[in-house]
Write a structure and sequence with these properties.
alpha+beta; 271 residues; 6 helices; 24% strand; nine-stranded mixed sheet
């Protein structure tokens, strides 16, 4: 069954009530936004994976915004040779595509948990909209940024300021984006970021005099604003206890390596 998400153009479908069509339309417009603050990477990863496994057609899409303590994450295709000197920073092997990257305090991380089939978009659309979200956010700070067709992410003068990496399972996305705001970039010298030797990394705080450029908290609303505009969400909600989702969808067996339904999954490259 195909239904246009613009309610004005929904056509009558035999056997489907107007009430059902309105509900479908509402779900394509609804987004739950969670500001999670500083959270352990592994806990958030496992929660968004379990959320994706357990969601159904009545589950609203969500956008999780978070910072992580220092951690290297290695994608499914990650090569050990790109981990140069991890030292005391933990390395987590995860189920997204691509190579190794770094997360740490002062970096804005966003996880769009989107039912792509219901939204009527593909993986390439999600990547493009996410890159555009970052480009439009940086433009508000006076930073001219751009994506590269051969290397997903967002760049300024050929140096990288934001990375992307998604996992698609059951037609739904998780993992997402990371934007360097006011973080310590030295940790990137311990790896080949996203598998590129010598790739220079940048921070927003060094590129703009706008006071928002040095604050993850100040930039999160801009990310939400541009993301919702580009993906046409108009019904937003902010839970009173946003971090409760991490407990609700925590691993029951406390096994952080458990990943289900892998045969139906595809990964979008992290870079």
């Amino acid at each position: 069954m195909w239904v246009c998400t613009n309610l004005r153009f929904i056509l009558p479908i035999e056997g489907v009530s107007w009430r059902v069509l309105k509900a479908i339309h509402f779900m394509t417009k609804s987004l739950v936004v969670r500001h999670l603050g500083m959270q352990d990477y592994r806990s958030v990863w496992r929660a968004m994976s379990n959320f994706t496994d357990q969601r159904d057609s009545d589950t609203a899409d969500e956008l999780w915004l978070v910072e992580h303590p220092p951690v290297f994450t290695q994608g499914q295709a990650g090569k050990a040779e790109h981990l140069l000197m991890p030292g005391d920073i933990p390395v987590v092997q995860v189920d997204r595509g691509g190579q190794v990257t770094y997360h740490g305090p002062g970096q804005l991380v966003g996880y769009p948990l989107i039912d792509l089939r219901r939204k009527g978009i593909g993986v390439r659309d999600l990547v493009t909209h996410t890159e555009s979200t970052i480009v439009d956010t940086l433009a508000e700070l006076g930073i001219e940024a751009y994506p590269k067709p051969d290397a997903p992410g967002v760049y300024v003068n050929e140096a990288k300021i934001a990375s992307l990496g998604f996992r698609i399972r059951k037609g739904c996305s998780y993992h997402g984006l990371s934007l360097n705001v006011d973080m310590d970039l030295n940790a990137f010298q311990r790896i080949n970021p996203c598998g590129y030797q010598g790739l220079q990394m940048l921070r927003t705080v060094d590129l703009s005099e706008d006071e928002r450029a040095g604050s993850v908290t100040a930039l999160e609303p801009l990310i939400v604003q541009h993301f919702t505009k580009l993906l046409d969400y108009s019904e937003l909600s902010n839970p009173e206890l946003p971090a409760s989702v991490l407990q609700t969808f925590a691993d029951v067996d406390n096994d952080p390596t458990t990943v289900s339904d892998t045969q139906s999954a595809n990964a979008a490259d992290q870079s």
